């Protein structure tokens, strides 16, 4: 049996009998299949949740372990997501050249890789943090992989909304690593990530609507069209603004975060409203998508800075 990391295989062309050589896999392929961009942005939210609960009393060892456990668990979800979506990814221009659909990585290798990451991540959370963190990690991983990826992405337009429930777990894990309980702040952090995700992914969906339609994903822009998607974006981005500001009223953050969360949120609301009169929907969707990433990163960085300044 060939080594999955170093094998070179050939595939038959659909148009002729010429053989196409598939390059050997590298460590970068294993990194990319775990979606490092997603891991980075969610690590910031995990760190923000941890910092918020710590309120200046930082347990550095705990911080390192909760970040490690959460990143490994999230990486597992991303890898298994790629494993389950490989048959659809090969139909999309954006994803067909990735290591798994292109044949650089073998499905069995990716499956084992994802399982190992999940076992390691959940073990770190259970043994070195606390059972509640591990339970949240397990629920998030199970829901993201099986309910969102394996089931709803292919069958229901509700996939993004339901997936947002499981995607909102990272900052809560960071928070309960210190607080060891699900209190109002944990619920607010959950709410911020829950309301943030649908506008973020639907903007991408509008931008890549033909790709998703070709692959067969039941994304909202594909099924209901871009106008209904824009209305749905507003249903989430508007309540995100007051939800993000609630941390001020629990005395967890100061006025810097309060003002910044309002300003950032209102800017995003305004950008989303512009979509109803946008002449170039693709360009508008790209701007909204990029801003959504910057919004989340800035919001949690300001949350951290504000906590430091307040202390």
Total of DSSP H or I helical runs spanning 4+ residues? 14
The overall number of domains is 1
Oligomer: single chain
> Could you give the order of the helices and strands?
EEHHHHHHHHHHHHHH
Mean pLDDT: 92
Number of strands: 2
What spatial form do the alpha-carbon principal axes imply? globular
- Secondary-structure content class: mainly alpha
Largest sheet: 2 strands, antiparallel
Strand proportion: under 5%
Would you identify the CATH architecture?
Orthogonal Bundle
What fraction, in percent, of the residue positions are helical? Answer: over 70%
Radius of gyration: 20 Å
Which stretches are poorly predicted, pLDDT < 50 over at least 5 residues? 1-20
Query: Can you list the strand order of the major beta sheet?
Result: 1-2
First-last Cα distance: 59 Å
CATH class: Mainly Alpha
* CATH fold title: Farnesyl Diphosphate Synthase
